[in-house]
Design goal:
mainly alpha; Arc Repressor Mutant, subunit A; binds FE2/S2 (inorganic) cluster
């Protein structure tokens, strides 16, 4: 699903960016260009970012326990 229309960025793009180290909307802006023009996508980008960070944290916790 497209999150940013000004710079075509999808939720999948954001999840990949988080896996590669992005940790903030500022990071997403730098890496993907989203949230840099009209900024209407900022809330949705933040929601996907938060969810992706939580999933990454869970995966890392499971790896540590294994
Ligand atoms: S929709 Fe993302 S900057 Fe405009």
């Amino acid at each position: 699903m497209y999150i940013c229309l000004c710079k075509p960025v999808t939720d999948r793009d954001i999840r990949v960016a988080v896996d590669q180290g992005c940790r903030s909307v500022r990071d997403l802006r730098t890496e993907l260009g989203c949230c840099s023009d009209c900024r209407r996508c900022a809330r949705a980008a933040h929601e996907v970012l938060t969810d992706a960070l939580a999933q990454k944290s869970t995966r890392l916790s499971l790896l540590v326990q294994a």
